[in-house]
């Protein structure tokens, strides 16, 4: 069984974390996010994966190599200029070995889910579909691809990122995993950008091809924003969603190699403390991602935040819903809240920023 994993996006919404690291390689529950997706594919019987890369392509191969550690045969297909989701699938497909009628799995590289992959493959076979799409239901579908289906599961329409209220015809969205008949991928044009959501799927429907929607209401999260990124990591650590790639049993926290946490510190809510990082006395860490070699001072309080490699957080600092990039320093007693992003190597002096509710 072969799969294509799309990991060529720029991850703009996760800047500055994605300046040097492509989004799918950011650490989630202790390992690059892509490791969870590859493990999930492997566990479902996939043995060969083509990674469709573009932005910062080399980072993937440096980490995963030919896939031996994962028990997978990994192949890299790099687009010089990003070809979009459809173009990326088509470009990656040149490395496939599957026959024309064989099912090929395709994954977006930023979706964390509890999808029952074998059940999706079974639905694909049962309905003899050209393409089968994993769908989920969300409260606010505006940021996604809307996919209404008829009672028998046939896809009626594909509406990517609707802009007007009238366009919101369903709460069912494209959950970012498909099964294609290989010959259908070969119909995607080459040599130019193609959006699978805006061009390929609507085009197939127009030509009367059979698209099946497979609704799975289990765990689903798009890790596109810092908030969802920390949420996904915490949920994996807590065991709310399972991945065989998490380097430890489910629990309140995950401490990586040589992490040092003071006895009086409280670390919970699915927080990861990265390799060689230190957490000072009485610090309180909740639902956060602390990457490697980070120093957190005594009495600091960090909630729902990402602290990247080599950053230093001063004593008594309070960070809520923040991103602190590589090598940055937040001085003592600063208070940073919702959405604050500290750029790499920036240094915030001690006692420099306080939040006031008195606006
Ligand atoms: N190889 C390659 N080349 N990959 C790409 C390219 C490209 O040019 N552009 C995007 N990708 C990859 C991204 O890395 C990501 O893994 C995936 O394709 C989807 O791109 P996003 O940029 O994350 O799209 P989105 O989240 O706005 O929307 C997509 O995902 C939603 C579900 O999470 C769409 O497929 C929506 O329809 C869907 O609902
Ligand atoms: Mg996305």
Describe the 3D structure.
The structure is a single chain. The mean pLDDT is 96. The chain is of the alpha/beta class. It has two domains: 2-222, Spore Coat Polysaccharide Biosynthesis Protein SpsA, Chain A; 252-348, Hexapeptide repeat proteins (UDP N-Acetylglucosamine Acyltransferase, domain 1, 3 Solenoid), CATH 2.160.10. The strands form seven sheets. Strands 5-4-1-6-11-8-12 form a seven-stranded mixed β-sheet, with helices on both faces. The protein has a six-stranded parallel β-sheet with strand order 14-17-20-23-26-29, covered by helices on one side. Helix content is 19%, strand content 28%. Helix 3 packs across helix 6 (196-206). The longest helix is centred in the middle third of the chain and has 13 residues, at 226-238. Strand 2 and strand 3 (31-32) form a beta hairpin. The chain is elongated, with a radius of gyration of 21 Å. It has seven helices and 30 strands. The structure holds guanosine-5'-diphosphate-alpha-D-mannose and magnesium ion (MG). Residues 6-9, 52, 54, 79, 82-85, 88, 108-111, 144-145, 160, 173-174, 176, 197, 222, 224 line the site of guanosine-5'-diphosphate-alpha-D-mannose.
What Rg is obtained from the alpha carbons, in whole angstroms? 21 Å
Characterize the main sheet: 7 strands, mixed
What is the level 1 CATH name of the largest domain?
Alpha Beta
Q: What percentage of the residues does DSSP assign to strands (E)?
A: 25-35%
Give the overall shape.
elongated
Please give the domain count: 2
| CATH-defined superfamily of the largest domain | Spore Coat Polysaccharide Biosynthesis Protein SpsA, Chain A
Distance between the termini: 58 Å
Helix fraction bin: 10-25%
């Amino acid at each position: 069984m072969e799969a294509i994993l799309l990991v060529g996006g720029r991850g703009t919404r996760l800047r500055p974390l994605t300046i040097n690291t492509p989004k799918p390689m950011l650490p989630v529950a202790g390992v690059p996010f892509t490791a969870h997706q590859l493990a999930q594919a492997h566990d479902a019987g996939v043995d060969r994966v083509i990674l469709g890369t573009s932005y910062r392509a080399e980072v993937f191969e440096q980490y995963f190599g030919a896939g031996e550690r994962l028990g997978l045969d990994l192949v890299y297909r790099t687009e010089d200029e990003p070809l979009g989701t459809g173009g990326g699938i088509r470009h990656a497909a040149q490395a496939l070995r599957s026959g024309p009628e064989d099912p090929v799995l395709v994954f977006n590289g930023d979706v964390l889910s509890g999808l029952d992959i074998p059940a999706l493959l079974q639905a694909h076979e049962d309905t003899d579909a050209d393409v089968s799409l994993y769908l989920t239901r969300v409260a606010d579908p505006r940021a996604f691809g809307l996919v209404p289906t008829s009672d028998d599961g046939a896809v009626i329409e594909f509406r990517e990122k609707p802009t007007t209220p009238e366009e919101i015809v369903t709460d069912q969205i494209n959950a970012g995993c498909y099964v294609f008949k290989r010959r259908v991928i070969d119909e995607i044009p080459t040599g130019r950008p193609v959006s699978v959501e805006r061009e390929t799927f609507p085009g197939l429907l127009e030509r009367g091809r059979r698209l099946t929607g497979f609704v799975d209401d289990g765990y689903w999260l798009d890790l596109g924003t810092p908030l969802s990124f920390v949420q996904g990591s915490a949920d994996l650590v807590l065991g709310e969603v399972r991945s065989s790639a998490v380097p430890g049993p489910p629990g309140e926290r995950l401490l990586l190699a040589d992490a040092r946490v003071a006895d009086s510190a409280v670390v919970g809510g699915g927080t990861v403390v990265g390799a060689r990082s230190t957490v000072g006395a009485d610090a309180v860490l909740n639902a956060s991602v602390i990457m490697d070699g980070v120093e957190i001072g005594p009495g600091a309080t960090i909630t729902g935040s990402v602290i990247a490699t080599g950053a230093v957080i001063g004593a008594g600092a309070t960070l809520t819903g923040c991103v602190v990039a590589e090598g940055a320093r937040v001085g003592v007693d600063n208070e940073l809240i919702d959405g604050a992003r500290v750029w790499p190597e920036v240094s915030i002096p001690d006692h420099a920023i306080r939040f006031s509710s008195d606006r």
